Amino acid sequence: MRAIGRAAQCFALFTIIATQLHLAVAHTWVERLRLISSNGTFVGDPGFPRGNVLRTSPGFSDVPMTHLLGPTIDQSTQMCSDKQQDAVQTDGSPRLKAAAGSFVALEYQENGHVTLPNNQAGKPPNRGTVYIYGTSEPQKKENFTAIFKVWNADGTGGDKRGRLLATQNFDDGQCYQVNGGNISVARKTEFPKQPDTLQGADLW
Ligand SMILES: *[C@@H]1O[C@H](CO)[C@@H](O)[C@H](O)[C@H]1NC(C)=O
Ligand SMILES: *[C@@H]1O[C@H](CO)[C@@H](O)[C@H](O)[C@H]1NC(C)=O
Ligand SMILES: *[C@@H]1O[C@H](CO)[C@@H](O)[C@H](O)[C@H]1NC(C)=O
Predict the structure, then answer these.
(1) How far is the CA of 169 from the centre of ligand 3 (A)?
(2) pTM of the model as a whole
(3) Residues contacting residue 168 through CB under 8 Å, at least 6 positions apart
């Protein structure tokens, strides 16, 4: 699964996954960021979010990387989880280095939201929309309601500290986690991949 945004220098990225029904009813997170070359291939070293806990860490669980919003969203709702308020990288998970204007892919797992759509009723065909916001002036305690659908592509929204860099379909049309559902089975045939240590047999 790849949502693609365009980077400006030193941007902090905030990623929000929304469906038509509820904000962040899905639970997944950006696992890795990649620089995309002009021919569409991934180049350079990968980057990672603040406070990243690698899936390959001993004793890994989803909890440290999950920041579920709702059902009530109000002015105190935080854009970042408690563990990601500070721009601090963990050992082995450096920040992505990208020149201004680069295209960047944000990789995440579909967690069944694409391949097992009937697990929760009412999923839209694109499985929800990923909103990617960036700022060169990140602050602690960024308030969700001051950014989501307030910052805009021109940088003239709200307090004007950031921009909407991209909106993307949650489903990139190729991703799958391996399961017995017909979508996963069909995609595994259409987009085969060699298992690797980070993604396993799944295709992010
Ligand atoms: C794509 O571009 C990258 C970076 O410039 C280069 O290393 C790679 O060989 C290119 N791949 C192809 C298939 O042209
Ligand atoms: C978030 O909202 C609180 C309460 O209104 C405010 O004190 C704080 O400055 C806001 N945070 C940012 C980064 O603007
Ligand atoms: C999966 O099954 C559903 C329900 O029968 C069907 O609507 C859909 O087209 C199938 N998708 C694929 C990729 O086979």
Answers:
(1) 19
(2) 0.86
(3) 3, 4, 5, 129, 130, 132
Cα of 41 vs centre of ligand 1, distance in Å, is 7
Give the distance from CA 183 to its chain's centroid: 22
3-state DSSP assignment of residue 188: helix
Nearest to 98 by CA among 11, 25, 39: 11
Q: Which of 39, 43, 45, 102 to mutate to test the pocket of ligand 1 (most atoms within 8 A of CB)?
A: 39
CA 115–ligand 3 middle distance (angstroms): 10
Listed residue (37, 46, 33, 48) closest to 2, CA to CA: 33
For the stretch 79-134, pLDDT in tens is 999 989 999 999 999 999 998 888 999 998 888 889 999 988 888 899 888 899 99
Half-sphere exposure of 111 (CA within 13 A, CB side): 17
- Tell whether ligand 2 has an atom less than 6 A from the beta carbon of residue 139: yes
Q: Whose CA is nearest to atom 5 of ligand 1?
A: 37
Structural contact between residues 121 and 22, judged by C-beta atoms closer than 8 angstroms: no
